[in-house]
Specification:
5-stranded parallel sheet; 10 strands; elongated
Length: about 240
């Protein structure tokens, strides 16, 4: 009998967001894979989880996955966690899941914390349809992606690091327009949680005079459809 691969979400800041089920699965797993063992150590210690922990990150994911599959095939249960949030959402996990499926290994993803959901709900933008972009390409393809997203009518969600935030806001003003509505959340669930809303210009001006710390989630209002497009049949309308 093969083992099972568990994808276990961990808190994005507030340890009270850890679920009872997640703690149980981590304690019962034969092995825990962590994006950064040093980052996960305090959280695991807090919940008295003493299992063996090995690193599984973007630099060793493909090579390590072969060995992990072997362990799973011998019947061991393995739990994958990222530094924060749900594995495989802008974090390692996708490749391992895909490889496990090739061997018909059971996979179970627990529900739990992920940064973009509270940021989206806090934004006040439509939540019935949205697109998650994660981190935009750093160089190659970045401009092309902006041009593609400029006409996206759904709410858009992006992740950004603090040292690139102002540059990204400057680029958004160029490709989306300075008046496009934006909601930027940082330090979600933590003591200094903050959400700043306004036009791209207003949000950029705010962060030019305030500390830029923590990880950022940007929610961008969808483009207003062109006049001709407004008359087109809406998605989901019945056929004639």
């Amino acid at each position: 009998m093969t083992g099972k691969l568990y994808l276990v979400p961990t808190p994005i800041g507030n340890l009270e967001d850890m679920t009872f089920r997640a703690i149980r699965v981590l304690k019962e797993a034969d092995l825990i894979l962590a994006e950064d063992t040093r980052t996960s150590a305090p959280m695991l210690k807090h919940f008295d989880i003493q299992n063996k922990v090995f690193a599984h990150h973007q630099h060793n994911e493909r090579q390590a996955s072969n060995e992990i599959i072997k362990f799973l095939l011998t019947g061991q249960n393995i739990a994958l966690i990222s530094d924060a949030g749900t594995p495989a959402i802008s974090d390692p996990g996708f490749y391992l899941v895909r490889e496990a499926l090739k061997f018909n290994i059971a996979i179970e993803c627990l529900p739990g914390a992920t940064a973009f959901v509270p940021a989206l709900v806090n934004s006040g933008f439509p939540t019935d349809k949205f697109c998650f972009e994660g981190f935009l390409p750093l160089k190659k393809g970045r401009q092309t992606r902006y041009k593609f997203l400029a006409t996206e009518e759904r709410t858009m969600i992006l992740y950004e690091s603090p040292h690139r935030l102002l540059k990204t806001l400057e680029e958004m003003a160029t490709y989306f327009g300075a008046d496009r509505q934006l909601s930027v959340s940082r330090e979600l669930t933590k003591m200094f949680e903050e959400t700043v809303r306004g036009t791209v210009t207003e949000v950029k001006a705010y962060f030019e005079t305030h500390p830029i710390k923590g990880e950022f989630v940007l929610c961008v209002a969808g483009a207003v459809p062109a006049e001709g497009d407004k008359k087109k049949k809406k998605y989901g309308d019945d056929e004639d």
